[in-house]
Amino acid sequence: MKAFIHNIPKAELHIHIEGSLEPELMFELAAKNNIRLPFESVADLRRAYNFTDLQSFLDIYYQGAQVLLTEDDFYQMTRAYLQKAAEQNVRHTEIFFDPQTHTARGIKFETVLQGIHRALLDAGQQLGLSSNLIMCFLRHLSAEEGMKTLEQALPFKDCIAGVGLDSTELGHPPEKFKHVFDLARQNGFKTVAHAGEEGPPEYIWQALKSLKAERIDHGVRCVEDARLVEYLVKEQVPLTVCPLSNVKLRIFDNLRQHNFKQMLNLGLCVTINSDDPAYFGGYIEDNFRALHEVHGLDFQDIYKIARNAFKASFLTLAEKQKHLDELDEFVSDFARRQMQDSPHSA
Ligand code: ADE
Ligand code: ZN
Q: Ligand 1, atom 10: nearest CA belongs to which residue?
């Protein structure tokens, strides 16, 4: 099963690129850029990754992002994530970035975008890993600031597939950003939103109805509203679930309490993702493996989840089909080899 989880072709749909900044690279960039981190060492920093809720994580995450100054810094961070993703057989990834975290510190929008974009282009050519970029609005900031950020992005819309909504959820309902998302859709951007991570099911309804979000990021609290579950199942709205993140941020006390398997069994279109892998103790494969170990996800479950992710991506129909064909072939080959190795066990 370990080999199956490692080798199965995957798509990742919920990864914040700033959340992939490993402590070692953070220290390296801090030294290069003459920025003093309030931690003595990598070990000291890692010890601080002991979160009580979403906000306690965000405070450290925004602090960490301050070491990023130049286009090359953004390139290096993105390249490191893509390398890891490719090693874990991710074939396609849809990456969030938070421009406001950087423009608020005087970094140019273009610097952020070009560094990330160049790494994505290189990974396409060198690692065979395709990607889409999703620009997130920080929901703890105002809708007016969100609108300014969208305007900054318009000249670069060929490099950005969609927009999303992240940061502090409680007290910042999705409908606050209705006009920003309306304009984004008019400009051809796809739409997603974090909802139902810490916030109530009502925020998921708002993300769907006010923002017309095509996917919900997290969405684990949907199970508290039977009518919402019925809707999500009927429409097969993709939910980008991040199990290790949910445990680290105390949405669930431990992985055993996580409702992923329940969501899968309800017929929801769930996917598995890493969210902020440098902070939450694992990349996509670690998330798959942990759920397998604790909830007994079997071959069929994993196949289904991998299919869901390609189907839920913002690739074209033809590109999705190419990935689904590769996935089907991988699974049939694997089953054939299993039969050859132990013909009486099937
Ligand atoms: N930004 C980075 N990770 C996030 C998360 N899990 N929820 C909301 N905003 C985020
Ligand atoms: Zn997230």
A: 167
Q: Tell me whether residue 197 is one of the annotated catalytic residues.
A: yes
Mean pLDDT of the region 214-239 = 98
* Range of the structural domain that residue 318 is part of: 2-339
- Identify the helix (H) or strand (E) that includes residue 101: helix 99-103
- Asked whether residue 183 is domain-assigned, the answer is yes
Tell me, what DSSP letter sits at residue 127? T
Domain membership of residue 29 (yes or no) is: yes
Is 345 domain-assigned?
no
C-alpha–C-alpha distance, residues 315 and 91, integer Å: 12
Mean pLDDT across the stretch 114-137?
A: 98
Q: Tally the domains of the chain.
A: 1
Q: Please indicate whether residue 197, judged by its CB atom, sits closer than 6 Å to ligand 1.
A: yes
HSE-CB of 220 using CA atoms within 13 angstroms? 22
Residue 346 pLDDT class (50, 70, 90 cuts): very low
How close is the Cα of 337 to the center of ligand 1, in Å? Answer: 40
Nearest CA to ligand 1 atom 9: 167
| Average pLDDT, integer, range 326-332 | 98
Put simply, whether the predicted model's pTM sits higher than 0.70 gets the answer yes
CATH code at 119? 3.20.20.140
